[in-house]
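User: I've been trying to design a sequence by hand for this structure and keep getting stuck. Would you show me what you'd pick, starting by listing the structure so we're on the same page?

Assistant: Good idea, let's start from the same input. This is the structure you sent:
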């Protein structure tokens, strides 16, 4: 955004006004700075949006013009040219930069001072091993000949056998509850009253017995069998009934229910 100002002696961009003043092409006394400010505010109001870059540029240029004009208007021991004033500002910037560098070096010096103070609290170890004591490290290759080295190399480079995974400890479910229910539905109706011990006497593993027991409980829940135990820890007697309804046992849904 180019800021334009309108004064009795100049009308145009603001940055060009500063250039004309510093090159002595315009007399600074003839420029009313109030008109410059009003022109800038009017232009900012007409634009509708605040341009921060243009605003900062205007403040810098106006600050330079105000300082130049105030120095010329105020009485002083010597008359100072505009170029000399600008050169003084450059020197001031250099001094400010050096001051910031000195502050940075001072901060670094404080950090090193703190580190040195912490290091001073450490006490070095003065005691050591008696120089008369000689520690001989063991010879790790003592007694090893070339044949043993060659044999070790052959063992290290020999092809490794394929790993064998032992699955003997893994239990495989050979019979599911659904299959056990189907088997009992096929055998119990014509078997009469049987004991659970006789149903599981031919089984080899405990898991198979548990699966048969769950199948018996499922049939009892559906009303296909009744369970009777004469005494505590006595034999469990199983009797087939037809309470589920004529023409079907109702066990067709059981395999799907216990699938997997």
């Amino acid at each position: 955004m180019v800021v334009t100002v309108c004064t009795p002696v100049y009308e145009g961009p603001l940055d060009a006004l500063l250039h004309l003043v510093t090159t002595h092409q315009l007399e600074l006394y003839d420029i009313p700075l109030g008109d410059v400010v009003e022109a800038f505010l009017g232009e900012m109001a007409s634009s509708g949006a605040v341009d921060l870059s243009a605003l900062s540029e205007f403040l810098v240029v106006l600050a330079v013009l105000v300082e130049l004009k105030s120095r010329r208007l105020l009485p002083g021991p010597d008359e100072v040219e505009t170029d000399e004033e600008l050169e003084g500002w450059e020197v001031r910037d250099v001094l400010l930069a050096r001051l910031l560098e000195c502050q940075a070096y001072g901060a670094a010096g404080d950090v090193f001072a703190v580190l040195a103070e912490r290091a001073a609290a450490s006490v070095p170890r003065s005691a050591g091993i008696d120089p008369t004591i000689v520690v001989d490290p063991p010879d790790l290759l003592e007694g090893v000949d070339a044949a043993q080295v060659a044999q070790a190399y052959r063992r290290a480079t020999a092809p490794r056998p394929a790993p064998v995974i032992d699955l003997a400890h893994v239990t495989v479910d050979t019979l599911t509850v659904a299959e056990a229910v189907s088997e009992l539905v096929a055998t119990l109706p014509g078997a009469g009253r049987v004991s659970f011990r006789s149903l599981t006497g031919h089984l080899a593993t405990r898991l198979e017995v548990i699966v048969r027991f769950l199948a018996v409980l499922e049939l009892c829940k559906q009303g296909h069998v009744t369970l009777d135990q004469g005494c505590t820890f006595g034999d469990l007697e199983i009797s087939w009934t037809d309470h589920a309804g004529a023409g079907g046992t109702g066990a067709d849904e059981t395999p799907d229910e216990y699938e997997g």
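That's my pick for every position. To get oriented when you compare it with your attempt: Residues 1 and 54 are 6 Å apart (CA to CA). Residues 82-120 form the longest helix (39 residues).
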